[in-house]
Amino acid sequence: MRADRVFAYGATAGLIGDRILGDPRRGHPVAAFGRAAAAVEGALWRDDRARGLLHTLVCAGGAAAVGALGARAVRSRPAAARIALTAAATWAVVGGTSLGREARAIGGALAAGDAEVARERLPHLCGRDPQALDEQQMARAVVESVAENTSDAVVGALVWGAVAGVPGLLAFRAVNTLDAMVGHKSPRYLRYGWASARLDDLAGWPGARLTALAAVAAGPDRRGAVRAWRADAAAHPSPNAGPVEASFAGALGVRLGGTLSYGGRIEHRAVLNGERGRPVEVADIERAVKLSRRVTWLALGACVAVRSAVAMTKRGRA
Q1: If we measure between CA atoms, which residue out of 98, 220, 93, 115 comes closest to residue 165?
Q2: Whether 236 contacts 272, CB under 8 Å
Q3: Cross-strand bridge partners of residue 237
Q4: Gap between the Cα atoms of 173 and 92, Å rounded
Q5: Sign for the pseudo-dihedral over CA of 241, 230, 143, 213
Q6: Got the DSSP string for 67-98?
Q7: What DSSP string runs through 103-123?
Q8: H-run or E-run covering 161
Q9: What is the pTM of this model?
Q10: Which pLDDT does position 184 carry in this prediction?
């Protein structure tokens, strides 16, 4: 069976597995990678960019190597084995179902008027300081996290899976996890995490644009999504979160961005869709989760279509 079909069947099966099973409560492969990356950090850490680059190469390269060895092991086996490996890798690296569950749990607490429970759960979803947020700000934080993580936790992995198969799936999730671990601008990681943060920006670029395009196509307000993306995305400090959050804001008709707090540090970000959007309401959390799911399946379809088209072009030239 051709590699493009193996990816199509395997990635679809992996997404269905995530939809049914979600993330395992124990023994998650990404958690195991995180422990290994922390051990590497313990051995290598210095307040130095070169050490941080070595950390990134060891961890991300190791994940890609594991994927390559797995793909090589099933290369000569029946197509079912190759599909099963792709499905398992896809399920291991995507996190759409858990993202939706966490968002809905916080939304349910807010809808019930239990802000304290919402504050307890918010760190499971994003790095904001929950004690600094009121109910409306928590709802906004959840919608922003759903948008950004649709790209980081799902679509980006699918893009690199389409490009490089199982090694691409594992390497992308490794890069994204490293950025979450060491890529932030704390005193400890300002230099050491520089390489991980820059690599994550590069690796996430295509997935973020595909996520934004899919949000335009799948959202209830397509013109609003395009308008907000064009007008406001560049004002976001992240080159990848900007298009994603702006397109979600326009598609849902809400305002995102503004003042927020990370680790006691206050940031004043540009407002996305500020001219036409309204403040986020608790009900918008469910709308964002549903949009995220539509975006996921559209993105998978786009990845499969592009990979199949490339394969057909190569066969035509041969």
Answers
A1: 93
A2: yes
A3: none
A4: 9
A5: negative
A6: HHHHHHHTTTS-HHHHHHHHHHHHHHH--HHH
A7: HHHHHHHHHTT-HHHHHHHGG
A8: helix 156-182
A9: 0.94
A10: 85
